[in-house]
Design goal:
Strand content: 15-25%
CATH superfamily of the largest domain: Glycogen Phosphorylase B
Order of helices and strands: EHEEHEHEHEHEEHEHEHEHEEEHHHH
Oligomer: single chain
Low-confidence stretches: none
CATH architecture of the largest domain: 3-Layer(aba) Sandwich
Distance between the termini: 18 Å
Largest sheet: 7 strands, parallel
Number of strands: 14
Number of domains: 2
Helix content: 25-40%
Radius of gyration: 21 Å
Shape: globular
C-alpha cells in the first residue's frame, strides 16, 4: 500500500446484471472481497433478479433496478438511457456513496452520467480489448462522450491500460487485473453434471464467436490419437451450431456441451487440460481460475493493433505454465494439445507452474489496488 486506506468506505458497484459472465463474476467477487475487508458495499444492477447467476453475501446491499429493457426505436432508447441514469443516481444518493465503480461499456456510460449528477467520484472499468471488440455505433459514440468525464478508467489488461494512457494520460488510467481466490481442496464438491469417463480437456466460456469454440473443434478434429480423451465445452448459449460442426468434423462422440457451471472448481479438479481458444479478451477469468487450479493450458495469443497482446498473453508464460499459439493457427493449437495429451509428466510440470498465478494475481494484492483507487478518487 502507498498510503492509509479507510476500511469503512461506502462503495457502490454498478453492473449490468449478475448473470453468468466474466464481468459479472469479477464484480461479484470484488463486492464480496471489499465487504470482507470492512467496507460498506452495495451492488446496483440495471437488470432485475430474474437473470441472477452469481450470489452476494448478506452484508452486500443489492439494488436490482430492472431498468435494462430493450427499446423498439431510437427515441425510446434515449428515454430508456435517461431512466437508467436516474435509477443509478438515486442509488448513489440514497446510499451516500463515496465512490462508484462500474463494469462494461454500456454500464460505464450510465454510471458516469449518474455519478456526475450525484456528485460522486466514479471509476469505470473496461473489461475487453476495445481495439478488437466493436460496440454498436450508438454506444461507441456515447462511450466517446462519457469516458472522458469519468474520474479514472480501470483496465484489467496491462496492454489496454497502456492504450488508454496514450490517450488520457497515466494519472487517469489504472491497470488492475482480475484476481483469484481458489477454495480449499476440502471445499470442492462434485461437478454439477455427469462427466464422461476418461481424460478431459475442458473449455469454459459463453457459446459465442468471441470465445472461439469453433476453432477448438477444428483443432480437436486434427488431434490424431484421442482414444480415452473427451472435450468438454462448458458455457451458456446456443450449442446447436457447435454440435453441428462437431458432427461434420466427425468428433461428436468425444465433444460434450453440458451447459453452464455455477462454480468451476469441481470441474477443474476432475479435468486434465484446459483449452482457451478465445479470439480476444481483456484479462480472462476462466483461464486465471483454471491455472490457479493447476491445469496446464493451451491458448491463442491475440495480437492487438498498436501494442502488445492482451488476453491470455498476460497470463501464460509459454512453455512454463502453459502454451501460447498464434491466433488462428489451428494446426499449432492441435499440436500443442497433442503434445500435452501425450505426456502426463509434462502436464504435471506445467500445471504446477500454473499455480503461481495465485501469487501473481491473488485477492489480497488486487483488492488492495482497488482500495488504493478509491482513496485516490476521494483525494481528488
Amino acid at each position: 500500500m502507498t498510503g492509509r486506506v479507510d476500511r469503512s468506505r461506502r462503495i457502490v458497484l454498478v453492473l449490468g446484471s449478475l448473470r453468468c459472465g466474466g464481468a459479472e463474476r469479477a464484480g461479484s467477487l470484488l463486492a464480496t472481497g471489499l465487504a470482507e475487508r470492512g467496507h460498506r458495499v452495495a451492488v446496483a444492477t440495471l437488470a432485475g433478479r430474474a437473470d441472477d447467476f452469481y450470489g452476494l453475501p448478506d452484508e452486500v446491499e443489492r439494488f436490482a433496478l430492472d431498468v435494462n429493457h430493450a427499446a423498439p426505436n431510437p427515441i425510446r432508447a434515449l428515454g430508456g438511457l435517461r431512466t437508467r441514469i436516474a435509477a443509478v443516481k438515486d442509488v448513489l444518493v440514497s446510499t451516500g456513496a463515496e465512490a462508484a465503480l462500474s463494469f462494461l461499456t454500456e454500464v460505464n456510460v450510465v454510471a458516469t452520467f449518474a455519478a456526475r449528477s450525484a456528485g460522486c467520484p466514479v471509476a469505470i472499468s473496461e473489461r475487453v480489448d476495445p481495439r478488437l471488440h466493436r460496440e454498436r455505433v450508438p454506444w461507441r459514440l456515447l462511450r466517446a462522450w462519457a469516458y472522458p468525464r469519468a474520474d479514472v478508467l480501470v483496465a484489467n489488461s496491462a496492454s489496454v491500460a497502456a492504450h488508454y494512457e496514450r490517450r488520457r494520460g497515466s494519472q487517469r488510467v489504472r491497470w488492475i487485473p482480475n484476481f483469484v481466490s481458489p477454495p480449499r481442496p476440502e471445499a470442492i464438491g462434485s461437478p454439477p453434471f455427469e462427466l464422461p469417463d476418461g481424460r478431459l480437456i475442458v473449455a469454459l466460456g459463453r457459446l459465442v464467436p468471441q470465445k472461439g469454440h469453433d476453432l477448438l473443434l477444428e483443432a480437436w478434429a486434427r488431434v490424431r490419437d484421442r482414444t480415452g480423451w473427451h472435450c468438454l465445452i462448458v458455457g451458456e448459449g446456443d450449442a446447436e451450431p457447435l454440435r453441428a460442426r462437431a458432427r461434420a468434423l466427425g468428433v461428436a462422440d468425444s465433444v460434450h456441451f453440458p451447459g453452464r457451471a455455477p462454480e468451476p472448481w469441481s470441474l477443474f479438479a476432475r479435468s486434465d487440460l484446459f483449452a482457451f481458444p478465445s479470439r480476444y479478451e481483456g484479462f480472462p477469468n476462466a483461464l486465471l481460475e483454471a491455472m490457479s487450479a493447476g491445469l496446464p493450458s493451451v491458448a491463442f495469443e491475440t495480437p492487438a493493433p498498436g501494442g502488445p497482446s492482451s488476453g491470455a498473453s498476460e497470463l501464460v508464460r509459454d512453455g512454463h505454465d502453459g502454451w501460447l499459439v498464434p491466433l488462428g493457427d489451428i494446426d499449432g493449437f492441435a499440436a500443442a494439445l497433442e503434445r500435452a495429451m501425450a505426456s502426463e509428466v509434462e502436464r504435471r510440470r506445467v500445471g504446477a507452474n500454473a499455480r503461481e498465478v495465485t501469487e501473481r494475481f491473488g485477492s489480497t494484492k488486487v483488492i488492495g489496488l482497488w482500495e488504493e483507487l478509491v482513496e485516490s478518487l476521494l483525494a481528488r
